[in-house]
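Hi P.,

Sorry for the delay on this. The queue was packed all week, but I finally got your sequence through. Input first:
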Amino acid sequence: MSGSLRFTFWIATFGAVASAAAYALTFAGRTHYAVLLLLPVLLLAWLGVVTQWRRVPRRNLVSEIFGDIPRWMKAAAVGLLVFVFANFLVCRALNEAARPDRLDDGRTVLVARGGKVVRELDAAAYAHAQVVQLRMLSGSLLACFGLAALLAEACWIKNGPAMADRRV
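Then the structure:
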């Protein structure tokens, strides 16, 4: 595996693991907003994946000589896509399609689009709404990083150097 492809793969894998940790901690009621620092890393990972994908010759994508993408990778990609949509819809439903916010007068509320207050929250409900909102973000980051890692692996399979360990 080339150095830049290996770097992209490990950056995406690190991001997926960090996002998964932040996602899991939300179920314990803990919010770690440091997961927001992964957004530039996500851009770096996808820039690397797109750059590597553009280097794969188009004939290699459909060629039987160059390795097929394993079924587990295809299933993992579909699973990540299903997960990200299900996670988004569940988190959105839990927060009543609104976001937690603190008003100027100190009240904590759920605010819908257009600034309409859905309902007022006590301190515990406000903390839970923030956890759910972070769960939605970290779940989306987990899926994006996971897909980037899978695509980096697919680039390796479809590139010529992957032929070294293939049987024809």
